[in-house]
Fold:
Amino acid sequence: MKKFLTIWTGELISSIGSGMTAFALAVYVFQMTGSVSYVSLVTLLAYMPTILLSPIGGVLADRYDRRLLMIIGDLCSGLGLAYILWQIQFGSFKMFPILAGVTFNAVFVALLEPSYKATVTDLLTEEEFAKASGMVQIAGNAKYLISPALAGLLLGITDIRLILLIDICTVVVTVLTTSIVRNTISKPVIKEGRGFIIEMKDGLSIIKGNQRVVALIVIMALVCFFVGFVQTLAGPMLLAITDAKTVGIVESVCAVGMLVGSLWIGLVGIHKNYSTILCVAGIFCGLFVALAGVNRNLIFTAGSIFLFFVTLPFINTCADVLVRVSIPNEVQGRVWGIISLLTQSGMVLAYILCGVLSDYIFEPMLAEGGLLADSVGRIIGSGEGRGIGFLLILSGIGMIIAILTTGRNKVGGVHVSEIVEK
Structure:
């Protein structure tokens, strides 16, 4: 556990830095363009290369030294941040450098993430998986817990350049902690590869042969789709009623919900009924998404988003443990890469759709005098940000329907209620 905690500390610091950059870029782009579509495009390119290349990163994680791959991924991803900083420092505002920088960063994160997930299995026993999953989520969720408030405060006194510089410095810390652990454990034997395509096909065959994992992938892809709407739209919706500093503080306070859920799992643990807990948490997740879009009241909206964040660690932990105990360790790198591609494709689709839906359909319909201003607008209000609110309501309802439908029907030959925990 000590070695895991060392790597975890580095990932926690890195997560805070990357979260600050993500928040600052979203605010920077939205304030410069006034377009949710551009914000969603930046978010899309920050994730899509990672998702598409995860299967390749997974094959490499099974074939080579996983800790070394993490180091290379961290160092090279930092170059994308350095490019954005250089362009902002010496150039004028242009979208291309930002899009190119976040894309380059995401390409090398694809090398990092499968190795990190497989490293957890390398360093821990099966009995420690659930608690470790809670801790991993705390580190991953620090980008929502701490980063928005820090970035919002810094943007009030400086600009995005300092935040980018801080993020670059966190890369150095992560590389050092990973190197420390790598030097204290035996180096893995480099395995002779049989070709990327063949090994990815092997991983896909392993997934297809495990109906529990197939069912989980379907559920998580649906959850990721609707969570993608929340991630992209919550900031612009709040910016319609308050300033960037307040939005940063609100987002950090709301994200404490993830800390609450993750700490509960890390301290108490989940020992059985993983599939049931996953489905119940998914239903409540959708309910709180819908409530977040109901009105302009900042406290009510923040409370709904807070409760939404509480549910996410339970969904993620249950899915994580069920997959981890179902797949042999020696192939977990490629399997996690393929699972990331399949499940997070739902999030990529959400990033593609939500900006266009918001800017060109829902916001105009809920604007003053818009098509729905005298109907739906009488209930949830009309004007700037209300189209986004209505889109969140529909997203939450969609998530509930998806979970109920998946739970009622057989997915990949396995009814959700029949998934047997180890």
Q: What stands out?
A: The longest strand covers residues 410-411. The chain is about 80% helix and 0% strand.
